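Quick one: structure for this chain?
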Amino acid sequence: MSIGQLCSTGMGVADTIMAGMAGTVDLSGVAIGCSFLWPAFLFIVGLAYAVTPTTSHLLPTKKFSLIQKSLFNALVYLCHLLCGGNNLVANALSV
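Got it. Here's what it folds into:
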């Protein structure tokens, strides 16, 4: 996990350096993109961390219907985030 975070941060640094060399408009585009990317990434990782203990707690008790509901709710939250994020980006681009 730590290696993945370091690689992702390094990629962001490289993107910022390259965009900074291209110009200020490109640099601002990278900054806006990162401001959408990181909260979405953290939400998805948090969702995965929340679903795992719930599933592992319910699996030995054979409560498969509750496991299904938990996974379904996680997917609904994820779809809501993805659809909401796309609308925000579309609204920002239309201005």
